[in-house]
């Protein structure tokens, strides 16, 4: 099973960046005798319930590609809480897939931190993980959780700051060993990742476009969806930037 990291955001119609995840969740469900995959969906923020519902719809459409099902193609086990809420341990019981949604990355990291060990255990046991935007960022061992300046110098648009001033790196779930940023081309966050690598805040990273997912599995790295994944690594005289596409 794989770790799927999507650059966001919600959209109507087909979501090819989710296809691999739903296939893996469905396969795991069949292996335990379930007709429909039971997928844990966690959303945090003011519109958490609505966000979780829309994610469930996107996932269900990818499972029911021909539109033949009379009911949702998955069993969504939803945990939707505000930023002052709590994500209970029961959010991840008896499931075939895990989806962590988008919103303010610092809030996701803070509320899910008590569950990081359980998330690692589930993924190690073969449960596929899908992180969308914030859920992708916190999947890293060292997570970029926000900020728009380094040493007081702007490195990305202030609108991408997530309420933080200086670019902030904090412990994440640890499902991947490089930093992750999202909304890469759409929000201009590639520059934040470049600056973070150059400043030594992270050793390297990947910035993911919207409607695009990085897939980390036994076969290495893959890309699904419409956009690109921007790879940023340290170089001899600065950083080296390259792209991967589907």
Describe it.
Helix 1 crosses helix 2. The protein has a single domain, classed as Rossmann fold (3-Layer(aba) Sandwich). The longest helix is centred in the first third of the chain and has 16 residues. The mean pLDDT is about 95. It is globular. It is an alpha/beta fold and about 250 residues long. It contains seven helices and 15 strands.
Key descriptive features of the protein:
246 residues, alpha/beta, Rossmann fold, seven-stranded mixed sheet, four-stranded mixed sheet, globular
Q: Number of folding domains? A: 1
Helix content bin:
25-40%
Structural class assignment: alpha/beta
CATH H-level superfamily? Class I glutamine amidotransferase (GATase) domain
Strand content: 25-35%
Mean of pLDDT: 93
Number of helical elements: 7
Query: Distance between the terminal alpha carbons, to the nearest Å?
Result: 19 Å
Task: Trace the largest sheet across and list its strands.
Answer: 3-2-4-5-1-12-13
Low-pLDDT sequence parts: none
Top CATH class: Alpha Beta
**In the CATH hierarchy, what is the architecture at level 2?**
3-Layer(aba) Sandwich
| Biggest beta sheet summary | 7 strands, mixed
């Amino acid at each position: 099973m794989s770790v799927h990291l999507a650059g966001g955001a919600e959209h109507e119609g087909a979501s090819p960046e989710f296809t691999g995840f739903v296939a893996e969740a469905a396969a795991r469900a069949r292996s335990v005798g379930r007709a429909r995959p039971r997928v844990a969906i966690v959303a945090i923020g003011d519109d958490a319930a609505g966000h979780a519902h829309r994610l469930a719809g996107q996932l269900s459409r990818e499972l029911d590609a021909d539109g033949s099902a009379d009911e949702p193609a998955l069993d969504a086990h939803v945990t939707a809480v505000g930023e002052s809420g709590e994500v209970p341990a029961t959010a991840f019981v008896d499931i075939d897939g895990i989806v962590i949604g988008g919103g303010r990355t610092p809030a996701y990291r803070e509320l899910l931190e008590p569950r990081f060990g359980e998330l690692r255990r589930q993924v190690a046991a073969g449960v596929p993980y899908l992180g969308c935007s914030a859920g992708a960022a916190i999947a890293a061992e060292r997570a970029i959780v926000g900020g728009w300046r380094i040493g007081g110098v702007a490195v990305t648009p202030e609108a991408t700051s997530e309420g933080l001033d200086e670019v902030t790196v904090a412990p994440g779930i640890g499902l991947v060993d490089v930093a992750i940023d999202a909304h890469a081309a759409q929000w201009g966050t590639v520059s934040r990742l470049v600056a973070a690598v150059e400043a030594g805040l992270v050793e390297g990273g990947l910035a993911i476009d919207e409607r695009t997912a990085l897939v980390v599995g036994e076969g290495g790295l893959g890309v699904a969806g419409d956009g690109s994944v921007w790879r940023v690594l340290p170089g001899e005289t600065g950083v080296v930037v390259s792209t991967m596409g589907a």
